[in-house]
Amino acid sequence: MKKPLIYSLILLLLVLSGCSAKPEEQNQKVSDKKVELTISAATSLQDALNEITATFEKEHPNVKVNYNFGASGALAQQISQGAPVDLFFSAAEDKFDKLVQDGLIDKSKGTDLVGNELVLVVPNDAKKEIKGFEDLTKTDKISIGTPEAVPAGQYAKETLENVNVWKAMESKVVYAKDVRQVLTYVETNNVDAGIVYKTDALVSQKVKVVATAAEDTHAPIIYPLGVIKNSKHPKEAQLFYDYLQNEAAMKTFEKFGFKGVKE
Fold first, then answer.
1. Given phi > 0 = left and psi -120 to 50 = alpha, else beta, which region is 62?
2. Do 187 and 156 touch, CB atoms closer than 8 A?
3. Count of alpha carbons within 13 Å of 5, Cβ hemisphere only?
């Protein structure tokens, strides 16, 4: 009578141990599974983010980061319309704050990460004497981003209004879809000058900075970063969100001309 009882207990233990092992095996499969994140980020962040991401992917080989670079206004609209995005890195607080207000980003999972400066650039071989924003009245054409969609364009318009040249310049403005297009117009001499971020001017060898906009001529240029609430990969999105705030990442941002804004 005892032997069958012992055999039954052994069999029960084997079954239980087999069942307990399965969740661990499943968890192991989840952690090793290749995950692809989609990050919507302002065009001006492109060079810095590409360098940071290369290091991140080496350290986390199971996570692939894909970027959708563009104007912050257009990117925010895409997210509002349900685009499958995991993180949003905006070049303007108002575009970011609207998504927070609409419940698409949890405020506790967002942060103001870096700042930038607004500069006036001209081609290296510029023929017109332009040394400051007030000199733009001497130009035939200038380029800025479309203010309604491109934060840099919004800041540029504010600056031109505050230095009292906007009314004289408005008919001469060539609008661009983002700051890199403004830069291209200046590099190719299609316009006499352009207003871009300092970080964009630094990556071009075909333009020179002739003036920096005073901070009191436009709203603060702040880049907020946040995790999208309906991210399909919240764990990995949080991982990259935290990674972008570490010391090494911040040094890379600074190398490309950004400045830290976190206390």
1. alpha
2. no
3. 2
Residue 140: phi and psi, rounded to 5, are -95, -40
Closest CA to 150 of 118, 111, 102: 118
Element holding 174 (H helix, E strand):
strand 173-176
pLDDT (tens digit per residue) in 139-186: 999 999 999 989 999 999 999 999 999 999 999 999 999 999 999 999
Rounded distance between C-alpha atoms, residue 78 and residue 95, angstroms: 12
Q: How distant is the alpha carbon of residue 100 from its chain centre?
A: 16
Question: Token pair for residue 207?
Answer: 């333009």
Backbone torsions φ then ψ of 187, nearest 5 degrees = -60, -35
Give the DSSP letter of residue 128.
S
Whole-prediction pTM: 0.80
Cα dihedral: 112, 146, 48, 131 (round 10): -100
Residues 6+ apart with CB under 8 A from 232: 84, 86
Amino acid identity, position 15: V
C-beta separation of 136 from 169 below 8 A: yes
Of 203, 169, 168, 166, residue with least CA distance to 186: 203
